[in-house]
Prior knowledge:
The structure is a homodimer.
Chain A: H1 9-27, E1 32-33, H2 35-42, H3 46-54, E2 60-61, E3 65-67, H4 68-78, E4 85-90, H5 94-101, H6 104-107, E5 110-117, E6 126-127, E7 130-134, H7 138-144, E8 149-152, H8 156-168, E9 173-176, E10 189-192, H9 195-221
Parallel strand pairs in A: 4-5, 4-8, 5-7, 8-9, 9-10
Antiparallel strand pairs in A: 1-3, 2-3, 6-7
Helix pairs in contact in A: 1-4, 2-3
Chain A binds a DNA duplex through helix 3 and strand 2.
Amino acid sequence: xxxxxxxxxxxxxxxxxxxxxxxxxxxxxxxxxxxxxxxxxxxxxxxxxxxxxxxxxxxxxxxxxxxxxxxxxxxxxxxxxxxxxxxxxxxxxxxxxxxxxxxxxxxxxxxxxxxxxxxxxxxxxxxxxxxxxxxxxxxxxxxxxxxxxxxxxxxxxxxxxxxxxxxxxxxxxxxxxxxxxxxxxxxxxxxxxxxxxxxxxxxxxxxxxxxxxxxxxxxxxxxxxxxxxxxxx
Amino acid sequence: xxxxxxxxxxxxxxxxxxxxxxxxxxxxxxxxxxxxxxxxxxxxxxxxxxxxxxxxxxxxxxxxxxxxxxxxxxxxxxxxxxxxxxxxxxxxxxxxxxxxxxxxxxxxxxxxxxxxxxxxxxxxxxxxxxxxxxxxxxxxxxxxxxxxxxxxxxxxxxxxxxxxxxxxxxxxxxxxxxxxxxxxxxxxxxxxxxxxxxxxxxxxxxxxxxxxxxxxxxxxxxxxxxxxxxxxx
DNA sequence: TAGATTGTTAATCGATTAACAATC
DNA sequence: TAGATTGTTAATCGATTAACAATC
Lengths: 233, 233
């Protein structure tokens, strides 16, 4: 991972998408692809694809394009997916349990090793063979095991304190499903999954589209406008 | 929702965050706030806050700042959160069930009305009182009920066909947890929650940070480098 | 070799930040 | 009124797209 020039967040966010498309091509036994072809599939410009990739090196060949398998493996290395990562889940509620049961993470090398909760009814249980511990045991666990990422699936009210503790105990990555923005030291990385926020932007876009259609309808033929939402169901 | 000038996606994505911070201020009985104070809390520039808000109108007052409750309610309206939205879950697996059980959506006006699956063991059951139907009944259900958003929590392989059907039957919003990019008509809005992608970018950033620390360490004192990851756990 | 397609520089576009006159 | 802070225009910064020489 050369870190000579800073890679822009926009590029980093596109990397998993490239990785996914190349994986699909690989499964379809396609051996080579040009930026133009990939551009058509992914709905981004060929120029952007070439720019993005060239942040990390020249993976293609003039007149040929890119070798799918080679590029796939290079992106895999860039993303750091050629290793295993140990994760813990903090908060064994609905979402925490769902993530533990979601076996696809493991296939990618993301291994959930333990779950922590405060609920006595959960502590001592196992989920998909993974033990649920008392949060009080978390400090000891982290000091005796290598924890790369903590998955935070606990209530808003508790998230800040736990994130603070985890940072203190040396956890460097937090995947935050709690609906708060965490305040952590600069050397701790947080990736937020704010589901409610995501849903709200979807709702905004639906309404925006609808009100535009409205205007178009009105302009076009003055038809009465059917409401998109019916409060009485 | 005036749609005179197009609002940039960056602004739309920040709206739920403003809404959340204003809600917190409201709960703390804070009645007014300046862009400068909010800037400090949210870690964005005061300039950006004022620019963002002025896309939708002049909600503040010179010399005073913004009235928290008023601004909160304005953003609520902008996001369209002054109504109820009916949702269905397609795919009653881990994540689908977790979302059904996550009661916070309902508090915001997002109501899950039905779940659809192909698994005979699930069909006929209820989750938090919400019925699980056979996917075969989905067309009829959608034609007889108002469905604003379909939550797609089904396997990659099935997602494309289902999204296609849903679009055909008139569903305008899809909240997509399946790990594929859906191809839908222009008047259908898709918001993706690609969990694996999100985790991958976190991993990238951790590794990037680590390799930088490496270089700093090396430059600073030439200390031996402790690997961040231990494959043997 | 001729054709295709990359890598990369330059041009454009959009988003963020700075600055300040307007005004409460 | 004087001080504070907005709304908004202008300047800067960054990201995307276009263009093309290099080269396989």
